[in-house]
Amino acid sequence: MSDNILIQAFAAILGNDNEARKQAESLIYQARAEPLSYTKSLLEILSTSQDVGVRQLAAVLLRKDLSIATSELSDESLWNKLELATRTEVKTSVLQLLENEPERVVRNRISDAVSELALSVTEDEAWDDLLPTLFRFVTSANEGLIESALRIFKNVFLFLTDAFMEKKESLFEIYRAALPHGNNNIKAAAIESLATLLEIIPKEQCAEFLFLLDALLEATKFLVDNDVDKGREALVQLNAIAEAEPLFYKKDLAKVYQYGIAFCVNKDEERDIRKLSFDLLCALAQRLPKQFENSMEMTSNYCGTLFEFMIDIDETVDEEWLSPPEGFVQ
């Protein structure tokens, strides 16, 4: 099946005509019967199509088809059907596509494909170029590539932990630069990937990253103040660290507490930001109880905030409460 036919099928899937979409899905299913030509077509479309939506869809399909997990379109991953030489070509191509892609939304999907492919690569066919290329991206001046590399870091840390920790000095410098970066996408990706790493590595290795705590907190505060959606996710990551490796916060608990309480008591903050901040304080109190017991000021402040949250009621009453269903007392 030609690339042009696939491009037309992708355009139909992105359109509003349900019948045309069904026919397009059938065409794609047929194309997958020839794994080699189909995979090369996806790579070619990603490389040459001028339509951002088409490239994005091609990247999504590539990620699904390169997964070793069962594909949504077939009972078997296409990756397992490709010859070793083709697999090598695909690994080289996806990194080149990531480097050359100008649109962030497509880069994100290609990053997902790279992450999925890294999971699919076996020990017998090691992807030697992956980490060197990612480290080159993350230390470049290209902000899009920096973000993409950090996103991939997050996805592959779990099964490449040892390989990354062998380069921990480089990781130190990467996060030293990324957390205070002026680009919010980079800042957010740095927080998320660093949190993921801290949740995975042993506490002894976590301690080596303690010098980044101030930058981590400042980056989170900046996002909460300037980009609330990313700030919300950053607070989720701080909570994840508290749950998985609370000792990371132990040495500077008072400082972490002050950051959290500042968001909690600021009623100008969005309610979910205040709640996430209080969740962080709760996690710290549960995981580091002795440190709270040894600080009367912190414990008293925490309890006061707890009671405040218990009686906090929105000024605007939801319509559902104004008109309860039949059977409820009014």
Q: What does this entry show, briefly?
A:
With 330 residues, this protein is mainly alpha-helical.
The profile of the biggest β sheet is: none
Percentage of residues in DSSP E strands: under 5%
Number of helices: 20
Task: Compute the separation of the termini in Å.
Answer: 66 Å
Order of helices and strands: HHHHHHHHHHHHHHHHHHHH
Poorly predicted ranges: 70-74
Structural class by SSE content: mainly alpha
Kindly provide the radius of gyration, computed on alpha-carbon positions and rounded to a whole number of angstroms.
24 Å
The proportion of residues forming helix, as a percent range, comes to over 70%
Topology, number of strands: 0
Shape: globular
Q: What is the arithmetic mean of pLDDT?
A: 88
